[in-house]
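YM 10:42: RNA polymerase sigma-70 factor, ECF subfamily sequence, as discussed on the call
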Amino acid sequence: MRERDQAQSTFPRDSADHGEAVGVEDLLLRVARGDETAFEQLYDQVSGMVFGLARRVLRDQAQSEEVFQEVMLEVWRTASRFDPDRGKATTWILTMTHRRAVDRVRSAQAAANRDERVALMGVTTPFDEVVEQVTERLEQRKVRRCLSSLTDLQRESVLLAYYQGYSYPEVSSLLGVPLGTVKTRMRDGLIRLRDCLGVTV
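YM 10:58: structure's back
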């Protein structure tokens, strides 16, 4: 079958009634075994959030549709790589979506800057700019290291809320955790990040 009928379609569908709801994680594990019916159900459950995140990052309908299609194909092809011991199924899929959307933004930006880069070839980069670039990379590494020190729930909550733009209620729904628990873990996680990064208030 052609890549699960090109991951169903180009556009996300509204959730359909498949009887008793099945969890995204269970569906993804069944998809990993080649279960096409499970993929159809998974598609209906996650297509809205996948397309919504792509649209939020890209702010372009056509590119969002392309990223949505790519992600659903990747889910079908690589579902066997999902490890439930390392995080939620929705987080795995949304992280994949965010990565592809950001890659698309970077690619577009690179194309837009190509002429400028060519024009600046041979020009020595100012010292201050070099310092700024090095500092930014060091800070990014430090943030990644500090994020790895959080618990799984703290890290997933912070990533969804602050890196992917979801509200607390949306994070609660995506992770299947009570709203109060999300708020508490988010607060504790941000405090740990602040201390790890050496931020003073």
